[in-house]
Design brief:
About 2% of the residues have low confidence. Helix 11 packs across helix 13 and helix 13 runs antiparallel to helix 14. The longest helix is centred in the middle third of the chain and has 72 residues. The chain is built from 14 helices and 16 strands. The chain has 4 domains: 122 residues, PAS domain (Beta-Lactamase, 2-Layer Sandwich), CATH 3.30.450; 109 residues, Beta-Lactamase (2-Layer Sandwich), CATH 3.30.450; 101 residues, Helix Hairpins (Orthogonal Bundle); 146 residues, Heat Shock Protein 90 (2-Layer Sandwich), CATH 3.30.565. By secondary structure, it is an alpha+beta fold.
Length: 517
């Protein structure tokens, strides 16, 4: 029958929508560039919304945070009660809040965040939503920690000075007083008593120590108003806009007698400082050269050992062929010579294999991670089952072993070497090996004890050196590299390895692993 249409002008609406879109883009860009994240907590439903920028500050993928409880799990437990109390206190007073707290970043690193925000309320004054922004202040916190450490060292130096020291801030408040100052002006109170005193109050306290108090106070005021260093009097101040004033009072009664000695001491000190600086530079160059040299030596050892494998295999192969084909067909000397070559090739292969293992410790090392040492020992016992049965050895693991942070394959190598040595270097009919661990303040100390032949004290240090052997190969076979590899592994884990032993009474090998690398 027909149609009816209504047409209205929405130009203004479109402009508003476009303006809103541009504003949102600008806000999003500002948040991204400024590393600022926004959050919105619905107190009624407990829902919590993080903007992508905020989730990025946490190292999280979008949509990970959904509730207030999700946020609490990522917040350091020592900070939660404090920030919740201060936040709720400000919200109860209808005031904004400004707080700082620590979080667990997805990377495992601890980070500091600053949060600023406030709440919205219903008609009854009840909180509906809490909103805020977060910024990463980790670098600032680290800088503050460094500054605090520097200030503590500075105060410690001032406390130990033989001169009386008074430090006054720019707002004329006493910040530091040492004991010498109290003694110098005959004050009975402890130094901390005067912290927070105004400059005016402090001058009234000390003026009685001057021979001419009023004249001394006039001179002090003149010094303070000019903001210039004063030579030969009571104070040394910074040029420019001052942070504060550092007053040093020295008894110069004996100055004439000590000036010459002081000059000699200063000259000697300058020379020692210069010598020390030169020594540090030379030491730095030497350390760098040693690092480069060690790296080259490791590479050389690896390449050399690897390249020796093939010709050695050829020597062993053809010597064994000679032995099978001509054994008994030549004279006895020839048979002995062939036997010596075969045995030598076998020993050289063992030596090359161990040398390769030693040179590849750093290049082939795995990343550190949690290691269940009970599992490691289970693998070690399985690997050594055959030799244990042959030697009738008894291996005991005392109590559950701990979980540590380290390289699992390298830890297994250490235990396997120590346990195997305890069995090999043993003259008893039934070798006894005991493995245990004891927790210390900074980590764990593991021990592997045996009832073997023992080691005399003068040789206990050198057994950890590469190629160092205490016995003939015919008596106890081996290459002399095993314990050197153990020491290198323990060094990489930040620990130490040592032995306690005496000849004929067995040995106890200890090694420490710190709680954290």
């Amino acid at each position: 029958m027909g149609a009816v249409a209504v047409v209205r002008d929405i130009t203004i609406q479109k402009k508003i929508e476009e303006s809103l879109r541009v504003s949102e883009e600008r806000l999003r860009l500002a948040q991204t560039r400024g590393e600022v994240g926004v959050w919105d907590w619905n107190v009624v439903t407990n829902d919590l919304h993080f903007t992508p920028e905020l989730e990025q500050l946490y190292g999280l993928s979008p949509g990970t945070i959904k509730t207030y409880d999700d946020w609490r799990e990522l917040t350091h437990p020592d900070d939660i009660e404090k920030i919740e109390f201060e936040r709720d206190n400000q919200i109860a007073q209808h005031k904004p809040f400004d707080l700082e707290f620590r979080i667990f970043h997805h990377s495992g690193e601890m980070k500091w965040l600053s949060t600023r925000g406030g709440a919205t309320y219903d008609d009854n004054g009840q909180v509906k939503r809490v909103l805020g922004i977060n910024t990463d202040i980790t670098n600032r916190k680290k800088a503050e920690e460094i500054l605090q450490t520097t200030l503590l060292r500075f105060y410690k130096i001032l406390s130990s000075m033989s001169a009386s020291v008074l430090l006054v801030t720019a707002d004329n408040k006493v910040e530091f007083v040492n004991q010498e100052f109290c003694d110098y002006f005959h004050l009975n109170e402890e130094p901390d008593y005067f912290i927070g005193y105004t400059s005016l109050n402090m001058t009234r306290v000390i003026k009685s120590a001057y021979r001419n108090p009023e004249e001394a106070l006039l001179r002090i005021n003149d010094i303070v108003n000019n903001y210039k260093p004063v030579h030969g009097e009571e104070v040394l101040m910074r040029d420019g806009k001052p942070y504060g004033r550092l007053w040093l009072h020295l008894d110069i009664t004996e100055r004439e007698k000590t000036e010459e000695k002081l000059h000699e001491s200063n000259t000697k000190l300058i020379k020692e400082v210069n010598d020390h600086q030169q020594t540090e530079l030379r030491l730095k160059d030497l350390v760098n050269e040693l690092k480069r040299s060690n790296k080259e030596l490791e590479q050389f050892a690896y390449v050399s050992s690897h390249d020796l494998q093939e010709p050695l295999r050829m020597v062993a192969l053809f010597t064994q062929l000679l032995e099978r084909r001509y054994k008994g067909k030549l004279d006895e000397d020839a048979d002995d010579y062939i036997k010596f070559i075969v045995e030598g090739a076998k020993r050289m292969k063992l030596l090359i294999d161990d040398l390769l293992s030693y040179s590849r410790l750093n290049s082939s090392s795995s990343e550190f991670g949690p290691i269940k040492m009970d599992k490691v020992m289970g693998n070690v016992l399985s690997n050594l089952q055959l030799i244990s049965e042959e030697k009738n050895a008894e291996i005991k693991v005392h109590e559950p072993l701990p979980t540590i942070i380290g390289d699992e394959s390298q830890m297994m190598h250490v235990f396997q070497n120590l346990v195997a040595n305890g069995i090999k270097f043993n003259d008893k009919e039934s070798p006894e090996i005991n493995i245990s661990a004891q927790e210390e303040e900074n980590g764990w100390i593991f021990s592997v004890s045996d009832n073997g032949i023992g080691i005399v004290p003068e040789y206990q240090a050198q057994i950890f050196e590469i190629f160092k052997r205490l016995h003939d190969r015919d008596e106890y076979p081996g290459t002399g590299i095993g314990l050197a590899i153990c020491q290198k592994i323990i060094d990489r884990h930040g620990g130490k390895i040592w032995v306690e032993s005496s000849k004929g009474k067995g040995s106890i090998f200890y090694f420490s692993i710190p709680s954290k690398k």
